[in-house]
Specification:
Two copies of one chain form a homodimer. The first copy, chain A, is α/β, with parallel strands linked by helices. Chain A has helices at about 20, 30-40, 55-65, 85-95, 100-110, 120-125, 155-165, 190-200, 230-245; strands at about 10-15, 40-50, 70-75, 95-100, 125-130, 130-135, 145, 150, 175-180, 205-215, 220-225. Chain A has two domains: about 10-170, 3-Layer(aba) Sandwich (Molybdenum Cofactor Biosythetic Enzyme, Chain A); about 175-245, Alpha-Beta Plaits (2-Layer Sandwich), CATH 3.30.70. Chains A and B meet through helix 1, helix 2, strand 2, helix 6 and helix 8 of A and helix 1, helix 2, strand 2, helix 6 and helix 8 of B.
Chain lengths: ~250, ~250
Amino acid sequence: MTNPNSPAVTAALLVIGDEILSGRTKDKNIGYIAEYLTAMGIDLKEVRVVPDDEGEIIAAINTLRAKFTYLLTTGGIGPTHDDITADCVAKALGVEITHDPRAVAMLRERYVNPEDLNEARLRMARIPHGSTLIANSISKAPGFMCGNVIVMAGVPAIMQVMLDEIAPSLAKGRVMASLSVDAGGLPEGAYAAALGAIQKGHEGVIIGSYPHFDGVKFANQIVLRSRDEALLQKVRGEVEAMIVSLKPH
Amino acid sequence: MTNPNSPAVTAALLVIGDEILSGRTKDKNIGYIAEYLTAMGIDLKEVRVVPDDEGEIIAAINTLRAKFTYLLTTGGIGPTHDDITADCVAKALGVEITHDPRAVAMLRERYVNPEDLNEARLRMARIPHGSTLIANSISKAPGFMCGNVIVMAGVPAIMQVMLDEIAPSLAKGRVMASLSVDAGGLPEGAYAAALGAIQKGHEGVIIGSYPHFDGVKFANQIVLRSRDEALLQKVRGEVEAMIVSLKPH
């Protein structure tokens, strides 16, 4: 599905859950999804974390799905009362939501005994009309894709199998190549002006400078990103020459 | 500054940086700030991550500062060309930004030799007018608070000393008490209906159910949160009784 002439494929991520905002649960999905999409050539352009609040979730869904190629969500698709994501997606998109027979069949694989598939568990088969289901090999309750909204579980292991499941059907962009140049012990302030000049001369490369503090001293990495590999290598050469020229002799 | 009758103190966090969205850097500030604010009785209501893009940063600042008591930001206040947060805050708030003599004095503590305090480093002393500076005991370049916007470094160790510095001056809310009840091996689907009924009966308590998957099986925690300690204990009793009643005998 890659077409180098097509516009960039973009995405936003909406993390749904009080537990992330209270600090009780430390999110592990943002970094994973960011890296995953980048490797597919999809540019993650925005992340939002919102509470388990219908109004907030619906507003965020509608803003983000309109702005980007895809909107991915994590969290809020379990069987308990605080799991309201599927209903919010249906309301946001203005589609009906009912028990989906395909999703019920998936749940039956796990809850073989009919009385175990109670009303609460059946809630996990409530899917907005027009969705593609996303299989869940771990706990069976599926995610789904409705329009350009991809709804996944919040539990990282389950989110990850769902992402593997849906990824092949997504449009892919040209992968943004990326490389790091170690600043060789130079502080940011010593190369900031020269690096800024290199950035100004090369709009096709995104240059970032990232300090890392180990508790005693800083170590800096200069990161170059571009969809033009030749240009990336040219700018790498300029950055490396800059570092050599600025190092004390 | 705590007044139990005053409305809740709320906050949003804006994480600024391409490196988080590309997945190259895994954010460590969201969880830390979430926990920190919760312990102060400040409700973190939303988090956004945006790229190093002036338009996106300004739009997010203006939306979030209008909606919540405080807006905290992390990232983008170093000396390199990709550090544009201070200028974006000034534009968003419609105030001037110039070299602040107090900030220059702070930088002089670190860059004693006058020629080391070059133009790039002096950029870190550009502060929107009307700001309170936030001291940085690690690398000296300060954060600042302008209106209700609190601007901090992205490097976790530096963000943390800045947060310690500014926190005493912030309005505090009544702390939301929180406790976990272990579901004792019960699956979510076994208690979802009963837990939903308990939630319905007690609006003053926020009840969440959080599955944890260890790669083999699920272990669930039911988390209760409230600003009413007596009510919290009453609901804890109901949830514990529910678990006992549902466990196989």
